[in-house]
Design goal:
By secondary structure, the chain is an all-alpha fold. About 70% of the residues lie in helices and about 0% in strands. The protein is elongated.
């Protein structure tokens, strides 16, 4: 029995350390290694958490969803620490580390002995050569996990900060929530297709960095923006909407749009695969015929030259089919609302102050 418990405990420690290394230390791939701890928290716990948030009113539900990221990180670290302590407790029990010094002991004594070693407590003394080896190994493992996690946090929050800076910068151009219509309208007035193409080129780097950081740190996807009407998925989708529209109606004037579209679509596809969400067969149509007509009218009012109506609509639909299914799947999985193609008249965040309500805002 002690041999079987020892083998099972050693296997548990190996699995937890493998997941820890893959999650924190290893350069990430789209297809991940061991993830039983992450799946338990970010799949099994997330589903009821999301279901409860949907029952909460207004911004309360979004605030509740925003708590999941930080709490999920703490829960994951706690899970790793508890699993490692349980594994080493099993090894101590299999080795009878406490029996040599104290006679018959309970499993709870081995758990306490393991926990004191994990946190490097000197309140207990190991007796026997193997018991000392296990205690040193557990203390080293505890230092490794705790210190590496502490070093992990700055990288996580720096990546979050860079993401949110870009999301905030999109607000004056595309509104909040963002939309392709406002981005086309305002950028068109600033400098026509040349300004739009230059602005889309700036988002190429952001889309690539978003893909890298959210594959390396999947937890970031659950961290929400400071404003309820903004999120990273809506920002990326708005940029893709604008890029697709530019490619369809003005390909010669917007060469950078194709590159930004390619890397943005790549990011959505890889993130959907990493989060194990598949595009559904029955998807909502984000761009109706009426919105398409309004979009063209808005672009024309901004002095943007457009190609013929019918061919451009067909090409746009083909481009939309390349990224919208992934965006919709991620939106449903992460409970992040997608933007409309044509924006509403709701005041943007940059026009508001913390002590003024949206209803009282009259700025235009």
């Amino acid at each position: 029995m002690r041999t079987l418990v020892g083998v099972a405990a050693g296997l548990l420690i190996a699995l937890v350390l493998a997941e820890f290394v893959v999650t924190i230390l290893l350069p990430q791939r789209v297809k991940r290694g061991p993830r039983f701890g992450r799946r338990a928290i970010f799949s099994w716990v997330w589903l009821p958490w999301r279901a409860l948030a949907r029952r909460l009113p207004g911004t309360t539900g979004d605030t509740f969803l925003g708590l999941f990221g930080p709490i999920g990180l703490l829960a994951l670290v706690t899970f790793w620490a508890a699993a490692l302590m349980a594994g080493f407790a099993g090894l101590h029990w299999a080795n009878a580390s406490r029996v040599a010094a104290h006679g018959a002991t309970h499993l709870a004594d081995d758990v306490y002995f393991s926990a004191s070693a994990f946190f490097n407590s000197t309140s207990t003394v190991a007796h026997g050569g193997m018991a000392r080896v296990l205690r040193i190994a557990e203390a080293a493992t505890g230092y490794l996990v705790l210190f590496v996690v502490i070093g992990y946090l700055p990288a996580l929050f720096q990546a979050y900060s860079r993401r949110e800076v870009a999301v905030s910068q999109l607000d004056p151009r595309a509104g909040s929530p963002p939309s392709a219509s406002r981005l086309l309208q305002r950028s068109g007035h600033l400098g026509g297709w040349q300004d739009i193409d230059g602005y889309l080129a700036e988002w190429e780097q952001w889309a690539a960095e978003l893909m890298e950081t959210h594959l390396s740190y999947p937890l970031l996807a659950y961290y929400r923006s400071q404003h309820v009407n903004q999120n990273w998925l809506a920002a990326l989708t708005t940029v893709l909407d604008t890029s697709a529209f530019a490619i369809a109606v003005a390909p010669a004037a917007t060469p950078s749009a194709e590159v930004t579209f390619a890397i943005g679509r790549h990011a959505l596809a890889d993130l959907a695969y990493a989060f194990r969400v598949k595009p559904g067969e029955s998807l909502p149509d984000r761009l109706s015929d009426a919105d398409w007509a309004r979009l063209r009218a808005i672009a024309a009012e901004a002095s943007l030259e457009l190609t013929d109506h019918e061919p451009s609509r067909g090409q746009l639909d083909e481009l939309r089919a390349m990224y919208e299914p992934y965006a919709i799947a991620l939106s449903r999985r992460l409970e992040l609302p997608l933007p409309a193609w044509v924006g509403s008249d709701e005041p943007e965040n940059w026009r508001l102050t913390a002590w003024r309500s949206r209803k009282a805002t009259t700025l235009h």
